[in-house]
UniProtKB/TrEMBL annotation:
Enzyme class: oxidoreductase
Enzyme Commission identifier(s): 1.2.1.5
One biological process term in Gene Ontology: polyamine catabolic process
Domain (Aldehyde dehydrogenase): residue spans on this chain: 28-494
Protein family (similarity comment): Belongs to the aldehyde dehydrogenase family.
The keyword Calcium is assigned to this record: no
GO-annotated molecular function: aldehyde dehydrogenase (NAD+) activity
Gene behind the chain: ALD2
Name of the protein this chain belongs to: Mitochondrial aldehyde dehydrogenase
UniProt-annotated catalytic positions: 266
Pathway(s) this gene product operates in, as recorded in its UniProt entry: Alcohol metabolism; ethanol degradation; acetate from ethanol: step 2/2
């Protein structure tokens, strides 16, 4: 066994040989930034130690990506051929779907059924969706002075793209960023989150087999402050795409100004879910549970503020509590009936617990949960009970700040105007949900809400064909769909003079 691979046996019995180097120029090499310990959040054991990239390693990865960008074998490859390579990678990932889902669950703590059925399905279909776009990216012809002049536009890749990935959807967020970047002909240096380095290493093994030329995709695990910072401050990186916290997004925005990098940022949220008295109450309660408790509450779009019309508050609270009781089964993420696994790391676990304390000390009333979940993990692991506070006011931290856990607040409102004002009363603007059977109200409120996405009688819908992103301090730019291509291409205008003689 080379020292750049490790043999593992997962909790579900699956045997996995995992590369542990950093991936530059289609090869795994040892990183010089020390090691990252990947911790199993279910029992706090060490799964594996993988290489971390130093600033010099980041420089080597950027050089590889630059060379690959300058080399016509990728950028000038006809769209159908570039797409074919992406399709091949998607096929190879599909053939290894169980192993990838196993690594995702083991490392992140999300239920295996979610990793397999949702995350991996999304990864594969996202790569295929953008592979399909690779031969459909082109400009327009614009008549200017009829008979004499016209202009046309060229859609060109941006160059070397740095992509910084969060830990809540490690592979899916990588696919959202790689898909459009590659379809447009860019080259990439991708930095996974240090909390979840494993699944992308396994996926990287198939990059050269799929046919990507060396340097087109480079994967550098590493720490945010070292490898992340080196990537964002690198003068030969043309673009940074980031998903993560708002605080880190702001720091990245500042650093990226060093050479005025193109940026897209997908940051935090405190998404409202508004329940009007004319809604289907059973549905509102069930979707409210899904909206905040899915993925351990670790979703930037999680509907963490439930605003309920005063006249139905008591009835809603009863049904919401019931939905949590019957659906939010906390347990071993590899068990079939688990809805909620552990939080990803001790730091996140302690962060959520500190917000529970804040909710109590600020005068909120604990409706349910509020404790570490003790019935799993034999005293180990980062499990938290699904938690709901009522009697919360708009000034409280738990109303204003992103918590990123299975934790929400229920607050009442009187009128539609109140609901809109309260929904918009945070610095964020990512997701939002409206429950009503009144068609006019649904569209009226959807228009007024300050958010990048609105769900009517639903929560957390996302589809690779539909733009995803936020307003206010929830981010800049859009991912997914055709909008996602705009983030990875630039438009060149070419003016043509056919007949105007001087
Ligand atoms: P969290 O606080 O939830 O861990 P972050 O937003 O800090 O989330 O992390 C998201 C991603 O950003 C990770 O890949 C992390 O390594 C990276 N990151 C963190 N700090 C920096 C930084 N200063 N520069 C670049 N990347 C960073």
């Amino acid at each position: 066994m080379s020292d750049l691979k490790v043999d593992l046996t997962a909790p579900n019995g699956r045997k996995i040989t995992l590369p542990i180097g950093i991936y530059i120029n289609n090869e795994f090499v040892k990183g010089n930034g020390g090691e990252i310990e990947s911790i199993n959040p279910t029992d706090e054991s060490v799964i594996a130690k993988v290489s971390a990239a130093s600033a010099d390693d980041v420089d080597a990865a950027v050089k590889a990506a630059r060379q690959a960008f300058n080399d016509p074998s990728w950028r000038d490859l006809p769209g159908p051929d570039r797409g074919a390579i992406m399709f091949k990678w998607a096929d190879l990932l599909e053939a290894n779907r169980e192993t990838l889902a196993t690594l995702e669950t083991w490392d992140n703590g999300k239920p295996y059924s979610v990793s397999y059925n949702e995350d991996l399905a999304e990864v594969i279909s996202c790569l295929r969706y953008y592979a399909g776009w690779a031969d459909k990216i082109h400009g327009q012809t614009i008549p200017t002075t009829p008979g004499m002049k016209f202009a046309y536009t060229l859609k060109q890749p941006i160059g070397v793209c740095g992509q910084i990935i969060p830990w809540n959807y490690p592979l899916a967020m990588a696919a959202w960023k790689l898909g459009p970047a590659l379809a447009c002909g860019n080259t990439v240096v991708l930095k996974p989150a240090e909390q979840t380095p494993l699944s992308i290493l396994f996926a990287a093994q198939f990059i050269s087999e799929a046919g990507f030329p060396p340097g087109v995709i480079n994967i550098i695990n590493g720490y945010g402050k070292e490898a992340g910072h080196a990537l964002v401050s690198h003068l030969d990186v043309d673009k940074i795409a980031f998903t993560g916290s708002t605080a880190t997004g702001k720091a990245i925005m500042k650093t990226a100004s060093v050479n005025m990098k193109n940026i897209t940022l997908e940051t935090g949220g405190k998404s409202p879910l508004i329940v009007f008295e004319d809604c289907d109450l059973d549905q509102a309660a069930k979707w409210s549970q899904i909206g905040i408790m899915s993925n351990q509450g670790q979703i930037c779009t999680a509907t963490s503020r439930v605003l309920v019309q005063e006249s139905i508050l008591d009835k809603f609270v009863e049904k919401f509590q019931e939905a949590i009781k019957t659906t939010s089964k906390v347990g071993d993420p590899f068990a079939d009936d688990t809805f909620q696994g552990p939080q990803v790391t001790r730091a996140q676990y302690e962060r959520v617990l500190s917000y529970i304390e804040a909710g109590k000390s600020e005068g909120g009333k604990l409706l349910t949960g509020g404790e570490p979940h003790k019935n799993v993990g034999e005293g180990k692991g980062f499990f938290i009970e699904p938690t709901v506070f009522t009697d919360v006011t708009e000034e409280m931290k738990v109303y204003q700040e992103e918590i990123f856990g299975p934790f929400c607040v229920v607050v009442s409102f009187k009128t539609e105007e109140d609901a809109i004002r309260m929904a918009n009363n945070t610095t964020y603007g990512l997701g939002s949900a409206i429950f009503t059977q009144n068609l006019e109200r649904a569209h009226r409120v959807a228009e007024k809400i300050e958010a990048g996405m609105v769900w009517i009688n639903s929560s957390q819908d996302s589809d690779i064909r539909v733009p995803f992103g936020g307003v206010k301090q929830s981010g800049i730019g859009r991912e997914l769909g055709e909008a996602g291509l705009a983030a990875y291409s630039q438009t060149k205008a070419v003016h043509v003079n056919l007949g105007l003689k001087l």
